[in-house]
Amino acid sequence: MQRRDLIKQTALTLAAFTLSRDLFAAEAEQTIPLPDVIKTIKLSSNENPHGPSAASRKAMIDAVMSSNRYPWDVTTKLREEIGALTGHTKEHIVIGAGSSELLGLTAVWAALQKGNAVAPDPTFRLWMPAARKTGLEIKLVPLTEKKETDLQRMKEAMNAQTRMVYICNPGNPTGTIIPAAELEAFIKEVAPKAIILLDEAYTEFSNEPSMAHLVNDYPNLVIAKTFSKIYGMAGARVGYVLAHPATVKQLNELQPWANAGASAVSLAGALAAIKDKAFIDYCKKENAAAKTIFYNTLDKLNIPYIQSHTSFVYFNTTGFGKDFKAILEAKNIVGARTFEEGTKWLRLSIGTQDEMKKVAAALLG
Fold first, then answer.
1. Helices 353-364 and 277-300: crossing angle, nearest 10°?
2. For this UniProt entry, which residues form the secretion signal (predicted)?
């Protein structure tokens, strides 16, 4: 290649890079459409189809340039902002790479005391393998006939060796919720005896309050929250634990580097997200509208379902007479799956309104 051609190609490459960079930055101000080649509708992991917000995207793009530095100041600022949101201080907050990491961390903390943990079945189980590996026996308690967490049977399953009780509220995969008064009474009775790991990944989709106001009075109460769901940042991996400062200290001591699991880019996105109430309200409203489209579809098919307080729906296809999952997959809609072996109960995440209309069209033919 001649020198003149090389210079010309280099100049064109730099110009293209500059143009694409500026276009990408401008794109952060609006919804980024998926490329046409991506035709699959993914409704499997309860991800927010609308996020991250424009504010979070811009914050993450801007943060790339400072990623050569450790984000200690951003981590501290995020902990302070979370504390302000929940009525606590940064000393009440542990930051991690998604709430899953912190669920596992809390389970390991409980396992160090040797004994057992009590959890409903089915539920979110990602933390269980690490707990078992570190010596914690898991005692599973069936849900009620209405697919609700059976708090009474969970108390009955506890014994002198019970170190932790796990509750996901609203429940995953069922979408049911424990009324606040019942849950608060349970915490007050059980927390003096064992750690309560309360997974509030989906609380923002419901109208029930968080149990955050109890952490100062009950050091055994550990509340796990995430930016993966309502905030639309599942791939960014940011979560936090809310607990008594003494409990936070013990959890921090189990982290190789306290509060350092999330990247500078992810932290910047989370910091912007937590201030963006308009986006949260929008996502909650859109989720409800899209969920109604799916409810109406199930009603037309005479498929019973549970009214969901989350971003997914749990339904029983026993009397449907067709392969529900296969019908959707034939239309490139993936995600329907069971969490109870031997049954035809399925969970499907809620997408956008347009996506749920495509689900309806596929099922109603």
1. 10
2. 1-25
